[in-house]
Amino acid sequence: MSELGRLSLLLGFACSLFAVGSIAWGLRTGLSGPLRGGRRAVWAVCGLTVLAVILLERALLARDMSYRYVAEHTSKDLPLHYAFTSLWAGQEGSLLLWLLILSAYGSAFLFAYRKRLDPFYDAVAMVIAAVMVFFTGLLSFVSSPFRILATPPPDGMGLNPLLQDPGMMIHPPILYTGYVGFVVPFAFAMAVLLLNRSGTRWIEEVRRWTLFCWGFLGVGILLGARWAYIELGWGGYWGWDPVENASLMPWLVGTGFLHSVMIEQRRGMLKTWNITLIALTFLLSMFGTFLTRSGVLTSVHSFAESNIGPWFLGFILIAATAATALILYRKALLESENRMDAIVSREGSFLFNNVLFVALTFATFLGTTFPVLSEAVTGTKISVSAPFFNRVNVPIALTLLLLTGAGPVLSWKRVTASVLKRNFMLPAFLGVIAVLVALPFGATGVYPLVCIFGAAFVITTIVMEFARGIQARKSAETGALPGQVVSLVQKNKRRYGGYIVHAGMVVIFLGVLGSSVFQKEAHGPLRNGESLKLGPYALTLRGVTDHQRQNASLTTAIVDVQRDGKFVATEHPSKAFYSKSQQPMTEVALHTTPMEDLYLILGGVNEDGSASIQAYINPLVSFVWVGGLIMVFGTLIALSDRMRLRREEKPVP
Amino acid sequence: MRFLPAPLAFLVLISALLAGSAPLLAKEKDPAQEITSQLICPCSCGEVVSGCICETGMSMKAAVENGIKAGKSKQEIIGALVSQYGEVIRGAPKPEGFNLIVWIAPFAATLLGFAIAWLVLRRMVRRRSELATAAAGAGSPAARGTMPFPAVRGLEEDLDALRARAEKELRQMKQGREA
Fold first, then answer.
1. Is the CATH number 1.10.8.640 carried by domain B28-92?
2. Do the Cβ atoms of B91 and A586 come within 8 Å?
3. Are B117 and A351 inside 8 Å of each other by CB?
4. Are A553 and A470 members of one domain?
5. Within chain A, which residues score under 70 in pLDDT?
6. CB contact residues (below 8 A), chain A span 441-480, against chain B
7. pTM, rounded to two decimals
8. CB contact under 8 A, B24 and A342
9. Cα–Cα 20 to 30 A to A643, which of A242, A403, B33, B150?
10. Domain-by-domain residue ranges, chain B?
């Protein structure tokens, strides 16, 4: 069976190579045969990858310990669903998942454009196939999941306990769907440059693909944050860990692109910049995979470290060089069609917004890679972690928040003083009031106050935009307010979907503000019957019990929670000892209310029988998740928009 | 100010939200946590010490608490821990020497980006007004929109007339429907 798996990957490698060659030949000669052959080869890669995945899954589910991958990542006592998801627990399997999603994108792309005869789409498929060459090659020759052990061990080493969490069953596939998907916009951009295509039709198509992947990446990041919050047990959800940063970077650049693409669509400007952003997004998503898998940086995510680092770096370098060369070579194609009317305009604000997104990405990139750089230069090991990013990234992000408020109220082309006054007075006024209201509640410091001002400002501008839209349509339609809002959103899904995404982002900002600035902590050893005070809460230890689970033994503290003297709940923070890893794992107890989370960790049971309890109050954490849901909702609305091509080129016969 | 009610509602919401968590906001942050949140656990866990529950982290927390009890300053406590575990425990590198780069570069890049964006925008604006004057100088009426040439300008006037007619018809249709 393992030979069949290896063969399917090898055939996949051959098919991807064939696809690239055949389509290139077809594009050069104009023959339709090679183009058709190339497309079919892309389909074939997808089929072969599915076969390889099925074969590996079969081995994982059967715990066939003759496979090295199975022996390293599962054990016989591992629950069946975790055996299934251990496909992405290690490096080879993760790469296979990458390839699976990549080839699925390739096929989905071909399916979506099956009726288009334009060779442009073949060129896009060719670029996707070129990326497939890399991954099938890597899986065939460097990091094969189908390696066989000469003497199979009686049992496997087990799955990393951190990964034995329901969140881990969906976080990686969703994150990868975002990550990998950026291949498609990249392929579009490269195809445009390769074929010297003008026109803006492709940019609308790219916008939709990007929005789709961007949405998935965002959900993947939040799921990862949620997983870290529940599973890592350090009281927070975002630690500026290298791999968290790696997933954030393509998201940031992608967000920048989703904004500046509007300028290209409306005004035909910033073409070079947009193509650069697309390429950067893809390269950063490759870099993210590299960071996760290379072990260059220590991180909670570097579950498997190995020798594929140089290969990835090489591929990223080649792709970056090719993209840069193509952009420079086709400079004429990317000339702006229009000129700016005024700096203070929506176009202008988008450009500044892009600067901030890229700056934020740069700060994150520099901070993430700096320990390696610094150690190489100075010889001293240093850390660049949360305390750094909180000081550097937070002010940039807050500036971005303020700009989020400013952008939508500036009109396109040119802003008159009266428009500026009309649109800015009310939000600024309400922003100041929000700050004044917040002050007596103990909100101090520049950043929290700026955040509160920005949040009130942005929300006000969004509400004003909705109100103005409804006002403008009042003559045409009457009815209840909710109905009017719905019909307004339906009228321009992209715009109002975007505003809803902004609103979700503001909610996330408030959640981050609450849970980071106003977090409270208490810890201490508790004997039976003793209490720990934390804010309005009193935590009383009622006892410690031990019990057995399928592949782990648990020590659980029983803690009664009282708030303002009233009993609220009994919580069970635990420590789990997995039979295979023997390292203790924290199982957090969470008491969630809309306004705050009470977060309990059992540090351990001491020799005198007391339990070390660590407790946090994390205000407004639920806002982070709710904000994420609002963003997903807005993204779905924006995605549901039918293609409205404002500046469409002549259709190709 | 006819849109006032809705934003006011949001304001109330935001105030309510702040009021709801007011008891939590009232107190100052614990001084020990302020120090431990700046430190990284040197063992393999790599967590920020304030949230770390491994042995090394717990002993560092205890050291910080003892230091505070002994009346030591924040710098003294951190300094003692750094001499014990090395620079690696600082969550953010000390801004000196080579490590200054990581502190300065992000802000420098942001400012540089803003400056470049400003220059690019200004050049684009200027080029546009040059185009307009050139068109005006060539005898054509003052350029409108993006169409400086007379023939195209005529076309644009036609388009405007068409648009006006379409809008008028649309209004009539809607009125018909309402009636």
1. yes
2. no
3. yes
4. no
5. 294-306, 338-340, 413-415, 474-478, 581-582, 642-653
6. 441-443, 452, 455-456, 459-460, 463-464, 466-468, 476
7. 0.86
8. no
9. A403
10. 28-92, 101-178
